[in-house]
Amino acid sequence: MPVLDDDGRLIPDSFAIALYLEEAYPERPSLFNGEGGKALSRMVEGYSQMIVHPAIMRIALLDIHAILDEGDKAYFRQSREARLGKSFDVIAAGSEAEKAAFGAKLEPLRHMLKFQPFIGGETPLFADYIVFGALQWLRVCAGLAMLAADDPVIAWFERCLDLHESRGRTVTAA
User: Fold this and answer.
1) What domains appear along the chain, each with residue ranges and CATH number?
2) Measured distance between the N- and C-terminal CA atoms of the chain, rounded to whole angstroms
């Protein structure tokens, strides 16, 4: 779970951090552009946490495990097997099928990108960063090879990687 330390004030949780930043720094570009953006971001957060994150976990589980320090591997395996209710072997056996099905889980995003370059419209909002964060996690741990190079989601993801002086690109991909 991310935690923001803003001059000694600790704010846990990504959404709470975004709300805090919006209020504490009104002179900065808005993360929401009003109440509609907050509502949109809540819906996108639910989509990401209920559809995208579980798929990524099943796709990247073994990749994540492989890059952990030896001391963390046993805890990771035990806690993820308990959370997912399956052994690593069973999850690994379903990884290829999950990769094949992953593109369909992004269809709502793909549909929206027919009309605008970002979830937020012409410019990104917090809703973009929610899904971008999930796909960045996948890119770093297991790669995005399951998505076609000409997929509109990849084009959107590339635009997100270019934001903020291309800081997203500074993280090495799998």
Assistant:
1) 1-30 (no CATH), 31-170 (1.20.1050.10)
2) 22
Return the axis-axis angle of helices 53-67 and 126-141, rounded to nearest 10°: 40
Helices 126-141 and 35-47 cross at an angle (nearest 10°) of 30
What is the tens place of the pLDDT at every residue in 82-122?
988 999 889 888 999 999 999 999 999 999 999 999 999 99
User: 70 with 77: CB under 8 angstroms?
Assistant: no
Please name which of 150, 58, 147, 144 lies closest in space to residue 98, comparing C-alpha atoms: 58
Helix (H) or strand (E) holding 36: helix 35-47
- Confirm if 93 and 84 have CB atoms less than 8 A apart: no
Tokens of 144: 């995005």
Q: Is 5 exposed, middle or buried (0-12, 13-18, 19+ CB in 10 A)?
A: exposed
Instruction: Check the CA dihedral 70-75-76-81 and report its sign.
Output: positive
Whole-model pTM? 0.92
Structure tokens at 115: 């009309």
